[in-house]
Design goal:
The protein is mostly beta strands. It folds into 4 domains: about 180 residues, endopeptidase domain like (from Nostoc punctiforme) (endopeptidase fold (from Nostoc punctiforme)), CATH 3.90.1720.10; about 210 residues, no CATH class; about 170 residues, Jelly Rolls (Sandwich); about 90 residues, Immunoglobulins (Immunoglobulin-like), CATH 2.60.40.10. It has 7 helices and 48 strands. A hairpin with a 4-residue loop joins strand 2 and strand 3. Helix 2 packs across helix 3. It is elongated. The relative contact order is 0.09.
């Protein structure tokens, strides 16, 4: 703000700066201030599309100050902005003389007048980063910073007072000096991932062990004999049907508009295909979505764009297009509005045998199979327009679109997306409606990522995605610039023990990559979450408790950052329940804004958060088989999940921490070496407590470390003799 304020300052004439007009009581019964604001905005909206001409005030041609004068006059509120047709600079001086200036963009509200440059351009602020003004291309709604002049501040009309017009002071009036301005395309300020960052992945010392992969992890064998496992917050590998090999997920469409290298196979067909233009298949489950459109919607063949991640239908519903991205658990589709659409309702048909759509109380839709089992979910849709400003995460409107389900006479179901007309009237185009099918098939809880926002306090965000940036999704953190909106990120990784087993953890680090934010660094606090959460239900209002601080890390845009979490991981390995992590600004407020990449899309684009664990000791875990008896317990063990095939084992039993051995299996070879249970010899043991340990051998790793000692009792427990105390004063019978 320093630069723009300096340019604005000469117009202030020494006036004191106030945030609003004084609230004055009125003898009249004026309409509420909010209604006055809406009347002026409605009046201005009537002139959308009217051509620009410098000095004109309508109704057929107008400049920016002319639009303001005309809108206030038409709404009967002209006295609230001097009542006269002035130029921008004269309006600024008239308001400044009354202390009605707002210089902090975070304090701007709907109905304020946005001023640009040194009083060279003005418009009516609509809130949420949108302005209606007259630009070279005509009267339009645009982003707050979407014109070719810097924003200087805001003027606030006296919406609450009588609006009495004081005599104009000629010294306040200046030549108009208005500057025609052009719109800045969204591509000029939309955040992007620097291509040079693709070569900045953290390097591991060892080579990846492909045989150790899981859906959300990869493991490297280091030269010093230790291992490093990356645990990701989302799937990075998948198994093809009938295969046990973990392959990298690749969400690019191949010839024929199909994504096959993913847990969900996504097929895109011609838009008028009766069986569905989009089909998703996972295992034995299949869901197809068909278009329901009028006669003006012709057949469209899906076009795969150069990035391979994007499929477009340019005229899906007449003048409305459709864009499709594949996801590891479904597909994300966007209705694309290049301009205000003619209609605000769009219907799709569920074209899959035995699949039903159920409307949920939160506005989402659950897809269930013939047995009533949930196999997918359609979250409440989002309206996303082009008001994002300099990477501030704007342009997301969670309450502007809704879903409904209706049964048809033929037994099919229609899912209708409806967008509020008021939102379409004030959107900055191009605009999009995010209609997404996820959790297909419904996945068990595991690795998760979501962020919460005070701007959308009742909404869950597993990762915000814009159609202009298909290769990744956002996770927002800190306070969005020029606002009072705060954000926090929740992470959950698979339990390391489920991936590496009972190993010696030597270190654990949280790695984060902020791709947008301050180049001076933003301090972030990491806390342990103390209750379970799920991305689909998490929101700003339902955040679980997280009062244990694990440390802080400074996030600098375009650089990897890390935080040592060894103590926390060891505590969870020892039995402390783990529900994940929450990241929040260490110093909430201005300057704490940063954006992380939420989803890895390929081996080349892998910037999502990960927990990196270094460990050693591929030892088995020992216990007693559930069905064994105390007289002859069966000792059973499981090898580490990433261990190679067991070829031999040895088990020892002791009463003195293995200083001496009471019984031993010896080294079992051959077929005997493949078993994972052993019965201690009854003739060598007494009825008492023992400790047992086991180690196993594979051709690849040799002998493992001994397992942690396991305490067990051999034989039936000794029942102590209970002697009752003598009772005094009791007289024995004769």
């Amino acid at each position: 703000m320093i630069g723009p304020v300096r340019r604005f300052a000469p117009l202030l004439l020494g006036a004191a700066v106030a945030l609003a007009w004084p609230s004055l009581a009125s003898a009249e019964s004026p309409r509420p201030a909010e209604q006055r604001i809406e009347n002026v905005i409605t009046a201005a909206s009537v002139y959308l599309g009217v051509p620009y001409r410098l000095g004109a005030e309508g109704p057929d041609l107008m400049d920016c100050s002319g639009l303001i004068y005309r809108a206030f006059t038409d709404a009967g509120e002209g006295r609230r902005m001097s009542g006269a047709r002035l130029g921008v600079r004269s309006y600024v001086r008239w308001f400044a003389a009354r202390g009605a200036l707002v210089l902090d963009k975070a304090d701007a509200v709907r109905g304020d007048l946005a001023i640009y440059g040194a009083g060279e351009h003005m418009g009516i602020y609509l809130g949420d980063g949108r302005v209606i003004s007259a630009v070279l291309s005509g009267v339009t709604v645009h982003a707050l910073h979407g014109v070719g002049l810097p924003l200087s501040g805001f003027l606030r009309p006296d919406w609450n007072g009588k609006g009495k017009v004081e005599p104009l002071d000629p010294s306040l009036l200046l030549d108009q000096g208005e500057t025609p301005v052009a719109l800045i395309p969204a591509s000029a300020w939309a955040p992007t991932l620097d291509p040079s960052a693709l070569g900045a992945q953290p390097e591991r010392a060892g080579d990846e062990r492909v045989d150790m992969r899981t859906a959300t992890s990869r493991t490297f064998e280091n030269p010093n004999g230790t291992f490093t496992t990356e645990l990701h917050a989302q799937p990075i590998y998948y198994q093809a049907p009938g295969s046990t090999e973990w392959l990298p997920i690749d969400l690019r469409f191949a010839d024929g508009a199909v994504v096959g290298s993913s847990p969900v196979i996504v097929n895109a067909f011609a838009s008028d295909t009766a069986t569905g233009f989009l089909t998703l298949a996972a295992g034995e489950s299949t869901i197809s979505i068909a278009r329901v459109a009028g006669p003006d919607a012709g057949a469209q063949t899906p076009l795969i764009l150069a990035d391979g991640r994007t499929v477009d239908y340019f005229e899906f519903y007449g003048d409305v297009g459709l864009r499709v991205f594949a996801l590891p658990d479904g597909a994300r589709t966007f209705l694309v509005f290049s301009e205000k659409p003619k209609v605000n309702r769009f219907s799709l048909r569920v074209a899959a045998d035995g699949v039903s759509a159920l409307q949920e109380l939160d506005g989402s839709i659950t897809l269930v199979d013939a047995a009533g089992v949930a196999i997918g979910r359609i979250p409440r849709p989002l309206l996303i327009d082009s008001t994002d400003v300099a990477g501030a995460g704007g342009g997301v409107f969670s309450g502007a679109a809704s879903l409904s389900v209706a049964a048809q006479d033929d037994g099919t179901q229609l899912i209708t997306v409806e967008v509020a007309r008021g939102a379409l009237n004030e959107a900055v185009y191009p605009a999009f409606v995010d209609f997404t099918l996820v959790d297909f098939p419904a996945a068990a809880p595991g690795a998760d990522l979501a962020f919460v926002s005070s701007r959308h306090a009742d909404r869950a965000f597993p990762g915000a995605a814009r159609p202009e940036q298909p290769s990744y999704a956002d996770a927002w953190l800190g306070r969005q610039p020029d606002s009072r909106n705060d954000n926090a990120i929740y992470l959950h990784f698979d339990d390391p023990q489920t991936v590496i087993g009972d190993a010696d953890i030597e270190g654990a680090t949280l790695e984060l990559y902020p791709y947008w934010g301050s180049d001076r660094g933003v301090p972030v606090t990491v806390r342990d979450v103390r209750a379970a959460w799920a991305p689909e239900t998490l929101s700003w209002l339902t955040q679980p408790p997280a009062d244990t601080e694990l440390g802080s890390v400074t996030l600098t845009a375009g650089q990897w950052s890390s935080l040592d979490l060894t103590a926390s991981v060891l505590a969870h390995a020892a039995g402390t329940p783990g529900y994940g992590l929450v990241l929040a600004a260490a110093h909430p407020g201005p300057g704490s804004w940063t954006r992380l990449i939420a989803r890895d899309q390929s081996e080349e684009i892998a910037f999502g958060p990960r927990l990196v664990v270094t460990w050693s000791g591929l030892r088995p875990t020992l216990g007693v088989a559930p069905d064994s008896l105390p007289l002859a317990p069966v000792l059973a063990w499981t090898n580490a999940p990433v261990a190679a095939e067991q070829q031999r084992y040895e088990i020892q039993v002791s009463t003195d921490d293995f200083a001496t051995i009471a019984a031993s299996s010896g080294v079992a070879r051959g077929d005997s070496g493949l078993v994972t249970t052993w019965v201690p010899p009854a003739d060598e043991l007494e009825q008492r407590k023992y400790l047992a340990r086991v180690r196993t051998r594979s051709a690849e790793y040799g002998w493992s470390e001994w397992s942690e000692p396991y305490a067990f009792r051999f034989g039936l427990p000794v029942i102590p003799v209970v002697r009752l105390p003598a009772l005094e004063g009791v007289i024995a019978p004769d």
